[in-house]
Amino acid sequence: MTPPTCPRCFKPVSLDDTLMFDGAQARHLDCRRPHALSPVELRLLFQHCFDHAVAECASCSQAFRQTELGSDLLSHRTNLCPRCRVDLTDRLRQHVVTCTMLPEALRRTVRESRETTRRLVTESNQLPDRVDVPMSAAARTQPKGRSLQDLRTRLARLP
């Protein structure tokens, strides 16, 4: 079966993309930067990790704070190493779920949200290619009986 595609940009939806769901259909939060950090991940980094390094560039062997990272406005890339321009988004995302400065409950919520998104994308890949796929099919993939709406509500309440 072919992987699901974003209805806005028609590119394949990856398990690591930052997504939003319109009914049972997954689409990129930002089609220009499908792998960008989510607003919740960015907020947690700025609130809890502003005073320490959040990503280390393997090429340069340098650690950087989020405010030190570069961007390229012409190619719509962010979270770049200021020295060699390597994309450090994955390192930032990993930092959010491993940083001990964040309360464990927040880290767990972020992990659950990512896992739920991956599960929904995988499940939607196995469902028939119809626009009217019932939400109940996507709801069955939720961990521990939690719905996607429950996770969204919990993430919205984060400090």
Architecture overview:
It is built from five helices and six strands, in the order E-E-H-E-E-E-E-H-H-H-H. The protein is an alpha+beta fold and 159 residues long. It folds into two domains: 19-33 and 105-156, no CATH class; 39-102, no CATH class. The strands form three sheets. It has a two-stranded antiparallel sheet. The chain has a two-stranded antiparallel sheet with strand order 3-4. Helix 3 (104-126) packs antiparallel against helix 5 (148-156). It starts with 18 loop residues before the first strand and ends with a helix.
Number of distinct beta strands: 6
Low-confidence spans? 128-145
- What is the overall silhouette? globular
- Note the gap between the termini: 41 Å
Spatial arrangement of strands, main beta sheet: 1-2
* Helix-strand pattern: EEHEEEEHHHH
Helix count? Answer: 5
The chain-level mean pLDDT equals 80
Strand content of the residues, in percent? 5-15%
Q: Which structural class best describes the helix and strand composition? A: alpha+beta
| DSSP helix fraction | 25-40%
| Radius of gyration (Å) | 17 Å
Q: Please give the domain count.
A: 2
How many strands, which pairing sense, and closed or not: the largest β-sheet? 2 strands, antiparallel
